[in-house]
Specification:
The complex is a heterodimer of chains A (148) and B (115). Chain A has helices spanning 2-11, 14-18, 99-109; strands at residues 38-45, 63-80, 89-96, 113-128, 132-145. With 148 residues, chain A is α+β, with helices and mostly antiparallel strands. Chain A has a single domain, classed as Translation Initiation Factor IF3 (2-Layer Sandwich). A five-stranded mixed sheet of chain A has the order 1-3-2-5-4. In chain A, a hairpin with an 8-residue loop joins strand 2 (63-80) and strand 3 (89-96). The radius of gyration of chain A is 20 Å and the shape is elongated. With 115 residues, chain B is α+β, with helices and mostly antiparallel strands. Helix content of chain B is 19%, strand content 45%. Chain B has helices at residues 4-16, 69-77, and strands spanning 23-32, 48-58, 62-65, 83-96, 101-113. Chain B has a five-stranded mixed sheet. Chain B is elongated, with a radius of gyration of 18 Å. Chain B starts with a helix and ends with a strand. Classes of the chains: A alpha+beta (148), B alpha+beta (115). Chains A and B meet through helix 1, helix 2, strand 4 and strand 5 of A and helix 1, strand 1, helix 2, strand 4 and strand 5 of B. Strand 4 (113-128) of chain A pairs antiparallel with strand 1 of chain B, so a sheet runs across the interface.
Chain lengths: 148, 115
């Protein structure tokens, strides 16, 4: 029992490992909606890597457009087959939670946008009873447009 | 004892998933390519600012909050207009009573340059 409690305590530190920045390393970690049990359908896109601009990369005289935000989401469904704790489930995933889609949303809302810098990317995790899950990619950045 | 194994399994899964088994609505940081002093209009007297954003979970069943970079940076900037550089991002975890209540925060510290 003590070992089990120690393991639970150890695992409680696991969330700190889930935050992974995008540094200069070569590894790119995709963030896909998880699928469990018997997967019957999966058609989803998620973020992998996005090497963004810094203020230095902004062209001289570019018009400042302020802070913009784009969100793209993947959805997943996991339905237990039996009313048991260890029962298997049928699952599926769909949606476009890619960086491309999030940037498309930003461009649609701000057609003047030429580029983004000071980019922050976050994930929104939404789940109800583990049956319905939503994983969204949120891109928040400063935008610039053509010189005025 | 019969129900202890599945219960522990359930708790472990909940902790590993860093979310609530019944309801989860959290935001976690993914990436932030910050600026170096040479990339912004930096000055020696630029103030050092800190912003915090947190997720919380209770009784392994419910998890909520916003520990995103976007919110941490927004909190660091406050009402000021500018851009952060020389940024350090840290994680602060507070868990009580075997994690029955837990708070997981993203802390962003950096210097604030004018745009």
């Amino acid at each position: 029992m003590k070992i089990l409690l120690a393991a639970v305590l150890l695992f409680s530190l696991a969330p700190s490992a889930s935050a992974r920045g995008e540094g200069d390393e070569n590894d790119a970690v995709p963030s896909m909606i998880p699928s469990s049990g018997i997967m019957i359908f999966y058609k989803s896109q998620g973020p992998l890597s996005f090497v963004t601009m810094t203020p230095k990369d902004r062209p001289a005289g570019a018009k400042e457009l302020g802070t913009v935000k784009g969100v793209s989401c993947q959805h997943g469904l996991s339905v237990p087959i039996a009313a048991q704790l260890n029962a298997t489930s049928v699952s599926g995933g769909y949606g476009d939670g890619s960086f491309s889609k999030a940037l498309e949303v930003i461009l649609k809302a701000n057609p003047e946008t030429l580029g983004l810098y000071d980019v922050r990317t976050d994930l929104r995790i939404f789940s109800i009873l583990g049956i319905y899950r939503k994983l969204c990619t949120e891109v928040t950045a400063r935008a610039f447009g053509a010189a005025a | 004892m019969r129900y202890l194994r599945p219960l522990c399994l359930l708790l472990t899964v909940a902790l590993l998933a860093s979310c609530g088994l019944v309801y989860t609505d959290i935001k976690v940081p993914r990436g932030y390519r910050t600026s170096a002093p040479s990339e912004v209009k930096s000055a020696p007297d630029d103030p050092l600012v800190t912003g915090k954003a947190c997720n919380r979970s209770a009784i392994f069943l419910f998890a909520w909050g916003d520990a995103s970079y976007a919110t941490a940076v927004k909190n660091a900037l406050g009402e000021r207009e500018g851009i952060l550089y020389d940024v350090r991002a840290d994680v602060k975890v507070d868990a009580y009573l075997l994690g029955i209540y837990a708070k997981w925060c993203t802390v962003v510290t950096g210097r604030l340059a004018k745009l």
